[in-house]
Please model this.
Amino acid sequence: MSNIKVRFENTGIEMRKIVEYQEKVENIDKEIRKNASDSTEFLGWLNLPTSYDKEEFERIKKSASRIRSNSKVFVCIGIGGSYLGARAVIEALNNGFYNSDSNEPQIFYAGNNLSSTYIAEMIEAIGDRDVSINVISKSGTTTEPAIAFRIFREFLENKYGLEEARKRIYVTTDKEKGALKQLSNDEGYETFVVPDNVGGRYSVLTAVGLLPIAVAGINIDELMNGARIAQNKYIEPNLKYNECYQYAVTRNILYDEGKEIEILANYNPKLHYFVEWWKQLFGESEGKEEKGIFPVGVDFTTDLHSMGQYIQQGQRNLMETVINVVNPEVDIEIKPDEDNLDGMNFVAGKTVDYVCKKAMEGTIEAHVNGGVPNIIIDMEKLDAATIGNLIYFFELACAMSGKILGVNPFNQPGVEEYKKNMFRLLGKPGYEI
Ligand code: PA5
Model:
């Protein structure tokens, strides 16, 4: 099982108020389900857990096992929606501490910044280890991954020669158009598809996320199973029984009451990049037409010692959503100490997770009393199925929430503005004043 339970008792919003949105939610639900197969509507993610490309899925598994057997390092090159989903899942589920004795390939992420130092240090860290790369770009022309790919392609060609390098380059891009597709055809790279009707930030359950996730040794069947559970569960249009839509409605009610910022809090450092993925999903989907909840993330308890002060007593325009992993993967008992110099013997015999849960309960109480409504998402455990479930939960909630807000949650016209300026400053043909 991969249960997710959402609790609203700390929001001050009663179910009576939530179900006032029933008609609106039902209409949106009907509209998105009716348009799901329309390739121009970017709704391909909606039925993905049941209608993904099975042939490609098997090819992903085969390529992943080849990469795992011939590479000690796997470099994922991509940015935004072509990067964050894979990293979110991999960091949530894998041991984040590097173990040089491990046979697992180490996963590196490139093409998500423009730092020479970062690239140079990565190449140094690869050293003489065997490496494969996966360049992921729907458009094939995004500046950061395009530059990183040039560098890593040359690195591979110098290291292995042209023929072997070709076998170590995996490309995930549009099925027929774009520079990367053209290059892949010319060079014979193994390619995977970013479906036309799935936007970047909704693409983690396509080859975009699945190949790197499988290379990291994570069971992608389980991930899809969890997403499928969510797809079946949240098909319910009755708001009373659909926690995903309740979440979408509640955050809109709170927004209307002046809570313009939503903080997604986790109590497990492994979820840091999951929060980063969530930030992109909601920020890029809702922040337009001069409206939208501003999504931010915190890692607790770490950030209770930094951002905790603001959340408790700063501007009262905050709401908070807490991801609570109910059952920890491992737990460590705190031992008694004879000298008790740190005065911590009062927790002796308890576990680290027990202390964490009390920190969470105490924080929720403090923040709610301080005027920050809290939504709690209990996830049963941190495994592939539950993460798949949570991914689908947030994708559907985001689509519903954006539609309630009255924006198009599937476009991102604003991100082109800085690019135009950058290209003009770089002298790209066609971008002169
Ligand atoms: O969600 C999105 O659409 C964006 O974040 C894109 O994924 C990001 O800009 C990368 O684009 P591309 O895959 O075309 O390189």
Summary: The mean pLDDT is 96.
